[in-house]
Amino acid sequence: MTACGNDNAGLDGSLNQSGSYRGEVTPAASGPARSDQVLVGVGDNSYYPPPWRTVAAGHQVTADCHGPAGQPPRSVTVTTTDGWKIELTHGSQTFTAENLAIEAPAGQLSVSQSSIDYDQQQNIDDLEQYGHASVYTDSVNWDTPGRGHIEVQVRNVEPPPEWGESPKFSMFMHINCGGDPSAVSSSTTNRPPN
Asked: Is 14 part of any domain?
């Protein structure tokens, strides 16, 4: 049996009969966690231990990519051993997160467009001043730096009302859903934006 033409394979052609395939989770290009760690959760590192805040190696976090072969995933489900479950939908800055271990039922969170606009302007300013800039913003960066890649740099997003008086939510990781592995190293640019 081969993966050619199968609608249930990843971008790399790996066969999966269920229409879902495992993505590779690695640290984000930047963020508050160490360079070898990913982060998901609420609150400040020094005050909120697991399960409030997961800081772990990428291989300790699961990303299931959902969608047909040869295309970016329609959605991605991220789960941690500390109880976090996050549902990302392709192209959207609104996502669903939950952690029943801390009484945080499923609720929607969103990265504001004004935050993204600010970061884009900062990247343009950095490019002009320093000759290089990040290709990412503090958001869910879909298909960046290449197709099938998701760079998540979500910083201090307001929690949903279902979580009560919860601290703000952050998530920093890179998810590769079958994209070109060499694209990850391309997190900065020296070219002006289109």
From this structure: no
Q: Would residue 127 count as lying in a domain?
A: no
What pLDDT, on the 0 to 100 scale, is given for residue 181? Answer: 78
Q: Which range marks the domain in which residue 173 is found?
A: 20-111+140-185
C-alpha to C-alpha distance for 173 and 150, rounded to whole angstroms: 8
Kindly state the average pLDDT of the residues 143-158: 93
Q: What is the pLDDT of residue 70?
A: 67
pTM: 0.84
Backbone φ, ψ for residue 167 (5° rounding): -65, 170
Residue 151 lies in a domain: yes
Of the chain, the percentage scoring pLDDT greater than 70 comes to: 83
First-last CA distance in the chain? 43
Sign of CA dihedral 161, 166, 168, 173: negative
Task: Give the C-alpha separation, 19 to 178, whole Å.
Answer: 13
